[in-house]
Design brief:
Elements: E1 9-13, H1 23-26, H2 28-33, H3 39-53, H4 59-73, H5 78-93, H6 99-110, E2 114-122, H7 123-133, E3 137-146, E4 149-156, H8 161-174, E5 182-185, H9 191-195, E6 199-203, H10 207-216, E7 220-221, H11 229-232, E8 243-246, H12 249-254, E9 258-261, H13 262-266
Helix pairs in contact: 5-7
Length: 267
């Protein structure tokens, strides 16, 4: 088997790095209007969004939010979620994209680097956003599905060390040189992700990440200009290469990354 020629890539966290809010919580109102959640859940999501944006969400709070969202999603029709996201994507996400992030994505693509979005949010939310932004790959949380519904269990949780592990496995598969690659994130929970590349950047960092960046000499970027993406630029989506990367419960033990293209899934 011929070894892959190694090349650098650019890895972007999504929430508060590319977009100004939590991508999952941003869809709480459309999910309510679609009958998936009740008004109380909308209010709770709004509070969680406030805590998240205020930079006060620590690892334990994020873990509680993960459990809550998993419980909420139990029994949901997968196709219903996909349809709601598709119908409201541009209305919800378009105004939230940071202009500075768009410029960075453009720069990396012009310089020949693949762009990979690495997000704790679910693949059904992250994949369409990645396609809208022209990303080449997506690493996202994958929920277990059975008979077209979510069971409430998580197959792969794209959080903390799991992000770094998935990046390494994707690099092995695609031939990315992580030592020459770039990574961008706002959260201290993504320190493993930033540590795994040669060019880490802290974007709108929380207190812990800002301190870590200062100690390690990582550049700090402050993004504060949300822009309507359609007015800013029209990316050419790479539908043939966009993939959601998951580590299944049984697959993870073998250290294998499963990458499925959107086109093959539709087939």
């Amino acid at each position: 088997m011929t070894a892959l020629t190694q090349r650098p890539a650019a890895f972007f966290d999504l929430d508060k790095t590319i977009i100004a809010k939590s991508s999952t919580l941003a869809f709480s109102r459309p999910f309510y209007q679609g009958g998936l959640i009740n008004r109380r859940s909308v209010l709770r999501s709004g509070y969680a969004q406030f805590v998240y944006l205020a930079g006060g969400a620590d690892r334990d709070q994020i873990e509680r939010l993960r459990r809550y969202l998993s419980e909420q999603a139990t029994g949901w029709h997968v196709q219903t979620v996909k349809d709601i996201v598709a119908e409201t994507l541009h209305h919800i996400v378009d105004p939230l994209v940071y202009d500075e992030a768009v410029s960075l994505i453009e720069q990396h693509r012009l310089e020949g680097r693949d762009v990979v979005i690495v997000s704790t949010s679910g693949a059904e939310v992250v994949e369409p956003i990645g396609e809208m932004l022209g990303a080449d790959r997506v690493i996202a949380t994958v929920m277990v599905q059975e008979d077209g519904r979510y069971t409430g269990e998580i197959d792969f949780y794209a959080f903390g060390d799991n992000k770094a592990k998935a990046m390494q496995e994707l690099a092995d598969r695609e031939g990315y040189d992580l030592a020459a690659s770039y990574a961008y994130s706002d959260s201290s929970t993504d320190i493993p992700m930033l540590e795994s590349v040669g060019h880490p950047y802290a974007v709108n960092p929380d207190k812990v990440l800002r301190k870590t960046a200062a100690e390690r000499g990582w550049p700090v970027l402050d993004f504060n200009r949300p822009v309507e993406l359609r007015k800013r630029v029209r990316f050419e989506p790479r539908k043939t290469t966009l993939a959601a990367v998951a580590i299944g419960a049984g697959v993870a033990a073998a250290g294998v990354v499963v990458a499925t293209s959107r086109r093959s899934r539709r087939a």
